[in-house]
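Read as amino acids, tokens; as here:

___
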Amino acid sequence: MKKPSSFPIQKSDQEWRQELTPDQFHILREQGTERPGTSELNVEHRSGTYICAACDHPLFDSKTKFESGCGWPSFFDPLTDAVGSSMDTKYMMIRTEIHCSQCGGHLGHVFDDGPAPTGQRYCMNGVSLKFIPEKS
């Protein structure tokens, strides 16, 4: 489970730095992690879609968001073909990293302790996401 070396959206680090905030660049392009409990998306409860903060690719429907108590926005299922995964062996752990299928941006990790129907917890960095509310 290796992260692909190329994605449909390709940009240099310089281009990404011009488009992203320093925090977004660190998390999306350098596989960083935001501090738990700091994302305003933790308390977002409106209907809508969560998209990649780097390339605007739709990732999660708000219907799959749940309160996990972990400190990061959590979802039990991504949209079809929205994300990819790879093995992350940093910090002397083996985890499954989740990245955007279009730009390869690091989103977070997935764990097997989520709710039904999938049993998955996609624990995402809020900085790596943008929320688009459903139009009324």
Q: What stands out?
A: The chain has one domain: 13-133. The CA atoms of residues 49 and 113 lie 23 Å apart.
